[in-house]
Amino acid sequence: MFKNNGKIYNKFDLRRKIVVYQGDCLDLLRDIPDESLQLIVTSPPYNIGKEYETKSKLKQYLGQQAAVIKECVRTLSPHGSICWQVGNYVDNGSIVPLDTILYPIFVDFGLKMRNRIIWHFEHGLHCSKRFSGRYETIIWFTKSEDYVFNLDPVRIPQKYPGKKYFKGPNAGKYSCNPLGKNPGDVWVIPNVKSNHVEKTIHPCQFPVELIERFVLSMTNEGDWVFDPFSGTGTSIVAAVRHNRRGAGAEYERKYIDVAVERIEQELRGTLKTRPMNRPVYDPVLAGNSLTKAPWTYLDDSEQPLLIKERKLKYGTL
Ligand SMILES: C[S@@+](CC[C@H](N)C(=O)[O-])C[C@H]1O[C@@H](n2cnc3c(N)ncnc32)[C@H](O)[C@@H]1O
Questions:
Q1: Alpha-carbon Rg of the chain, whole angstroms?
Q2: Ligand 1: does its nearest atom lie under 6 Å from the Cβ of 190?
Q3: What are phi and psi of 95, to 5 degrees?
Q4: What is the pLDDT of residues 179-198, one digit of tens each?
Q5: Which residue in 68, 161, 207, 286 has a CA-CA distance of 20 to 30 Å to 32?
């Protein structure tokens, strides 16, 4: 069985198992041989002025993305996958869904789209002039028709596992797959915000469980998983956890330090993460006292006034 020996290198070599490179991803990509990576999974900068990016004109941003995508396509195995996770670019209050403008770039490089996955989460900015954004997308492309896709390791529990066929030759037998069902293309996975167990100093980390699903379904043991914009090393953590090789590039020294620490913790078995397939926390089911609205029973609160005003103004509560 393939096992990681725990050594983290900063230069790419196919014989190695873990590579964390500080610098521009294009420099690391130049050292990677053609068709050697099985899975490239990443969340690039969205060009929205986060602390790690300089906002540029959309055309310039797309040009930079195309240069990285071109190298990713060159280094991708004929049986491999590219998963690009993006949200919206915001231009003067008007939103541009980045997947829609990146899609033609992938197609022009000859890739085939397999899914556009909606990643839904509950936490984020509260907007006042549009509905708050509560999903982002992951666009999944392959280089050929002959691509690795292992569904069994990522099946999720059936809704009605006890359901049986009621007629036909299988009448009376269980109708569902006992290993679980296909997770579908809408994934409800909490994002890493302040009280998430995986939170570090990075403003937009992947949750490890999100990447584990790609690693398990799109690679086999010993394969390379690569993240060109690896931040805190989440994709490498997910790769190492499942006995794959992992490599990533990151500009910022402070995120490289966090990535190295997290990978080392993963290798020691001490990295705390949210487990795959744990149901999303429901505060009402959990009996959290804060879920009761105090203004339904407190007379001196100002909130009843606001509610009465809304009823008068909009005819609704
Ligand atoms: C959206 S974050 C990725 C976070 C990552 N998914 C994680 O789980 O931590 C994008 C990262 O790409 C880095 N970055 C931006 N341009 C880069 C480039 N050309 N080469 C390498 N890293 C880059 C940024 O510093 C930032 O940390």
A1: 22
A2: no
A3: -95, 145
A4: 999 999 999 999 999 889 99
A5: 207
Average the pLDDT over 33-51 and give the result: 89
pLDDT at 18: 98
pTM: 0.93
**What is the strand order of the sheet 112-120 is part of?**
18-22, 245-250, 224-227, 37-42, 76-86, 135-142, 112-120, 186-188
Give the model's pLDDT for residue 219.
Answer: 98
Q: Tell me the two tokens of residue 20.
A: 């964390």
What is the chain's mean pLDDT, rounded? Answer: 93
CA of 171 to the centre of ligand 1 (A): 53
Mutation test residue for ligand 1: of 189, 225, 250, the one with most atoms within 8 Å of CB: 250
Identify the pLDDT of residue 206.
97
Centre a 10 Å sphere on the Cβ of residue 182 and count the other Cβ atoms it contains: 10
Q: Among 69, 191, 230, name the best residue to mutate to test ligand 1's pocket (greatest count of ligand atoms within 8 A of Cβ).
A: 230
Domains of the chain: which residue ranges? 18-154+181-281, 284-317
Residues 44, 23: Cα–Cα separation, whole Å: 14
Ligand 1 center to residue 144 CA distance, Å? 28
Q: Which fold has domain 18-154+181-281?
A: Rossmann fold (3.40.50)
Atom of ligand 1 minimally distant from the CA of 42: 6
C-beta separation of 206 from 262 below 8 A: no
Residues 98 and 139: beta-carbon distance below 8 Å? no
Question: Given a cut of 90, is residue 307 above it in pLDDT?
Answer: no
**Closest ligand 1 atom to 202 CA:** 9
For ligand 1, whether the C-beta of 152 sits within 6 Å is: no
Residue nearest to atom 19 of ligand 1 (CA): 24
Q: Is the pLDDT of residue 317 over 70?
A: no
Q: Exposed, middle or buried, 1 (CB in 10 Å: 0-12/13-18/19+)?
A: exposed
Phi/psi of residue 57, nearest 5 degrees: -60, 145
CA dihedral 85, 38, 77, 204 (to 10 degrees): 20
